[in-house]
Amino acid sequence: QVQLVESGGGLVQPGGSLRLSCAASGLTFSSYHMSWYRQAPGKDRELVARITSGAGSTNYADSVKGRFTISRDNAKNTVSLQMNSLKPEDTAVYCCNAEYRYSRTSYWGQGTQVTVSS
């Protein structure tokens, strides 16, 4: 059974930091591109960051460049998102996604809430 479990969300003040983690099981983790998405109420789902299964190249949404960093640990089957200089507009449910590099097969976690507020 494939499972993706996110953790690390919470309430933080503007300018603060959070680190999200996603633990994967039931799949060959190194063969999957890993991404973080977010969705705020009334907004479309947005790709925040992605890291590939091979070379580990990364890309980011323009709104988070320079503030967020995605990383993966294939030995531990985890992907993380370090979020610095958080803004109220970063408030959303953040979900982990795994996409098989050889097909469009993908899996989703349930998400973790991030709230940035004074």
Describe the protein in words.
With 118 residues, the protein is mostly beta strands. 0% of the residues lie in helices and 53% in strands. It is built from no helices and 11 strands. The chain has strands at 3-7, 10-12, 18-25, 32-39, 46-51, 58-60, 68-73, 78-83, 92-100, 106-108, 112-116. Strands 2, 4, 5, 6, 9, 10 and 11 form a 7-stranded mixed β-sheet that branches. Strands 1-3-8-7 form a 4-stranded antiparallel β-sheet, with no helix packed on it. A hairpin with a 6-residue loop joins strand 5 (46-51) and strand 6 (58-60). It is globular. The mean pLDDT is 97.
Describe the structure using short key phrases.
118 residues, 7-stranded mixed β-sheet, single chain, mainly beta, 4-stranded antiparallel β-sheet
In short:
The protein has 118 residues and is mostly beta strands.
List the helices and strands and how they pair.
Elements: E1 3-7, E2 10-12, E3 18-25, E4 32-39, E5 46-51, E6 58-60, E7 68-73, E8 78-83, E9 92-100, E10 106-108, E11 112-116
Parallel strand pairs: 2-11
Antiparallel strand pairs: 1-3, 3-8, 4-5, 4-9, 5-6, 7-8, 9-10, 9-11
Total of DSSP H or I helical runs spanning 4+ residues: 0
* Helix and strand element order: EEEEEEEEEEE
In what range is the share of β-strand residues? over 45%
**Are there runs of 5+ residues with pLDDT below 50, and where?**
none
Distance N to C terminus: 40 Å
Quantity of strands, as a count:
11
Mass-distribution shape = globular
